Q: What sequence folds into this?
């Protein structure tokens, strides 16, 4: 894996087979009907070549690599033969793609080899696999709307809304398979055979504390709380030692602290990498209902999301069940009777360098099992969307209506953790500020809550900005919490986990709220009412020209 690789490559590190020549960064445009073609048979410009041929891979995806190959079929993957991570090429490439295409329309990237500490290490290593808004649909078997990422997102949310049963996603119990049927058991390494430094785990940023395994689902268990898995950053400390970083009050942290209270000397754990997209979503987001009492079977929730039972297999050193077709599984013990190890710093989700910790949990690795030539994933936290957000948004939109009957839609942009937009059908004075206060008090991460009317698209930052500029009065339509529960990773908090918050009522202020006696209508509304055929006529005459101009830029 880490042996020196000698092969003929292009000087750029981009495969000649997959090289694309158009676009601002040497790739085809992603948006407005322009797709990224990454194989020789894919069209590098225009959607026709990518969408007219029959697609061989579709949801539900049983494996990580099937899902990645499905993205490639749909023109949403850029494949590179070599990226020099000693020079932080993969990091810089991801930032540049986000600069040019935005968080919601940048493609995934795949490096077949990455240079680490002077050696070419075999991948593949993937990034931004659930970044493009089209993946919100692709993951769940919904056909994207060409050139309309936001429309695709709402189409996917409507599909997920239809999957809910009594406000929750259905559960399908996992099916246990034998070791010889589990892809993750194709290679088994024990003891001194294990050397995690030989895999393509990278240092994402020059200021990070080192190389990180930052996309693992950390499986832990508790006699009362049951099994849990969550995505916690894991610093590579040596061939068989890694840091394990659940934040305080996360379920994995609770498991370890309870085991320590019981006097246990160590806790067995497993870290699953290269998960299918459904296990990944459950691992990193609030899809499971944590308000329900008793154990929660998150593997059954993943099965419900995929509409098909997940196949699982027992670990090598414990009875813990893990996804059978993951790319790689790291098993070991987390000492509970020893001092922890220093951990970090690490570039976190807010886009700032996280704090270095004096002491943190760590794992002594005893066993690694993996597929042959495992595919791995890295998340550039703070730079990209980490996972599809539709499943969580649908749950929030449904669940919060019990507290806010006027709620239409809620949106928390991934690029700005802490900001949340709430769209309501306002029917009485005070409903805007009250809706914001309910959510700000309930959800720690909701730091800036902006409430808008039903005519504002919460996915459109331009409309949000306009509502703030034209409907909000800071002196009468705001509420500030001087101290509340907040996101522990917020770099602005003097005491981590504590923050001040603001609720902004950017709905039209009624006269009894201090607003004008008569609120004028939007110019666009007047256009659509006075000339109802104008926009359709422009689309019919010049729609192709408009899209073509965007693609040519």
A:
């Amino acid at each position: 894996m880490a042996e020196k690789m000698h092969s003929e490559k292009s000087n750029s590190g981009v495969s000649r087979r997959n090289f694309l020549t158009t676009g601002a960064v040497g790739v085809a445009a992603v948006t407005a009907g322009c797709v990224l073609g990454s194989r020789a048979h894919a069209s590098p410009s225009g959607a026709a070549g990518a969408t007219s041929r029959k697609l061989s891979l579709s949801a539900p995806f049983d494996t990580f690599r099937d899902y990645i190959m499905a993205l490639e079929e749909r023109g949403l993957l850029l494949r590179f033969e070599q990226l020099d991570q000693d020079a932080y090429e993969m990091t810089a490439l991801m930032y540049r793609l986000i600069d040019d295409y935005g968080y919601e329309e940048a493609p995934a990237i795949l490096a077949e080899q990455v240079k680490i500490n002077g050696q070419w290490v075999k991948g593949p290593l993937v990034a931004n696999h659930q970044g493009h808004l089209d993946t919100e649909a692709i993951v769940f078997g919904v056909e994207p709307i060409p050139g309309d990422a936001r429309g695709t997102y709402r189409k996917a949310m409507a599909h997920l809304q239809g999957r809910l049963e009594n406000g929750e996603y259905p559960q399908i119990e996992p099916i246990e398979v034998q070791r010889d049927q589990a892809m993750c058991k194709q290679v088994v390494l024990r003891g001194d055979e294990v050397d995690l430094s030989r895999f393509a785990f990278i240092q994402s940023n020059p200021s990070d504390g080192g190389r990180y395994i930052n996309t693992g689902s950390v499986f832990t268990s508790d006699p009362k709380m049951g099994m849990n898995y969550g995505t916690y950053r894991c610093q590579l400390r040596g061939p068989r030692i890694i840091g394990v970083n659940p934040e305080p009050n996360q379920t994995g942290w609770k498991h370890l602290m309870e085991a320590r209270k019981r006097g246990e000397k160590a806790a067995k754990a497993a870290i699953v990498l290269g998960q299918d997209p459904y296990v990944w979503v459950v691992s990193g987001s609030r899809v499971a209902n944590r308000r329900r009492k008793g154990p929660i079977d998150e593997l059954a929730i993943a099965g419900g999301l995929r509409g098909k039972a997940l196949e699982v297999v027992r670990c090598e050193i414990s009875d813990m069940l893990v996804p059978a077709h993951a790319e790689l599984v790291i098993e070991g013990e987390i000492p509970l009777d020893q001092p922890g190890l220093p951990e970090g710093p690490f570039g976190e989700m807010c886009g700032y360098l996280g704090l270095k910790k004096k002491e943190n949990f760590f794992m002594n690795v005893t066993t690694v099992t993996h597929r042959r030539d495992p595919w791995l994933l890295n998340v550039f936290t703070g730079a990209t969307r980490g996972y599809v957000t539709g499943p969580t948004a649908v749950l929030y939109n449904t669940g919060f209506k019990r507290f806010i009957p006027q709620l239409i839609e809620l949106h928390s942009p991934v690029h700005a953790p802490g900001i949340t937009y709430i769209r309501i059908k306002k029917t009485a004075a005070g409903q805007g500020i009250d809706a914001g206060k309910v959510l700000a008090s309930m959800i720690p991460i909701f730091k800036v809550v902006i409430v808008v009317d039903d005519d504002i698209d919460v996915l459109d930052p331009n409309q949000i900005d306009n509502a703030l500029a034209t409907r909000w009065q800071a002196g009468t339509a705001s509420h500030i919490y001087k101290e509340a529960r907040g996101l522990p990773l917020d770099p602005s908090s003097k005491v981590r986990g504590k923050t001040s918050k603001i609720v902004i009522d950017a709905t039209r202020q009624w006269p009894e709220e201090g607003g004008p006696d008569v609120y004028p209508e939007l110019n666009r509304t007047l256009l659509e009412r006075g000339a109802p055929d104008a926009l359709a006529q422009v689309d019919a005459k010049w729609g192709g020209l408009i899209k073509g101009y965007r693609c040519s830029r």
In short: Residues 1-52 have pLDDT under 50 and may be disordered. The chain is about 25% helix and 25% strand.
